Amino acid sequence: MRQTILICALLGSALTLAACGARDSAQEAKAMKAVNAIDETNLSDIMLTVSDPKEAVKYFERASTESPDRIDLKRGLAKSLVRAKSHERAITVWQEVLAMPGAGDADRVGLADAQIRSNDWAAAKATLATVPPTYETYDRYRLEAMVADSQKEWKKADSFYDTAVSLTTRPAGVLNNWGFSKLTRGDGKAAEKLFAEALTYNPSSFTTKNNLVLARAAQRKYDMPVIDMTQTERAQLLYTAALSAIKQGDVNTGRSLLQEAVDTNPQYFEEAARALAALDANKVKS
């Protein structure tokens, strides 16, 4: 009898341990799943920022195929395709995202961005029209401004640009776009002001520096602005000012600027030297 009780006790202990073991294994599996999810989220964030765009596309293609119900992975694929400049494919993937449960206004803005990048302005306008006015974000108003610009709705564009600037702590890009919009309208003074402001947020942007010189040249202000620039950048900016001067009929000023560009560049400046030679040859002929 005592032996039977002992065996039952041992069996009971074994069953209890087995149950505990099963419970522990389940908890471990659950914990590991949570850790893997966190690691995967971190990896997705990395892929969307510092990773090579093509590698990011491969990662999200594989991940979204393995987990087709995860909208975050499909979003990652759409964003990576935009970074990789595969805009037509990005449009298709964004449309797939919008058909999934959990899609929202940010995804519609993502689709509009891809449509603009593929030069489908009408589609982008239609997509943005589906975003409610209560959804107020920098990206939304930046795109609204660009669409208004494309249709020469200047008052709307200015309003949208102004709103976009107020919704970000890094407005350099949108200020540059706004400045270029002003420049294309022939308002060099306003463009100059916006480019100068953009450089206070991103002083290393050569595109903005070049646009600033173009805005000043449109007002026949050909001297270099007081901004940080390397010797090579200065030569390039002088070249930009020179071409603008020549285009506006200020040929002698353009010639002087070309010569200064050639003298300033630390290496042989072929384009400026060729333009200067062409001017000199034309002067001899005339």
Automatic annotation (TrEMBL):
Q: Does the keyword Magnesium apply?
A: no
Q: Which domain of life is it from?
A: Bacteria
User: What range does the record give for the signal peptide?
Assistant: 1-18
The UniProt record lists the keyword Signal:
yes
Q: For this UniProt entry, which segments traverse the membrane?
A: none
- UniProtKB keywords: Signal
The protein depicted here goes by the name: Tetratricopeptide repeat protein
State the organism named in the record. Answer: Thioclava kandeliae
The organism's taxonomy opens as: Bacteria, Pseudomonadati, Pseudomonadota, Alphaproteobacteria, Rhodobacterales
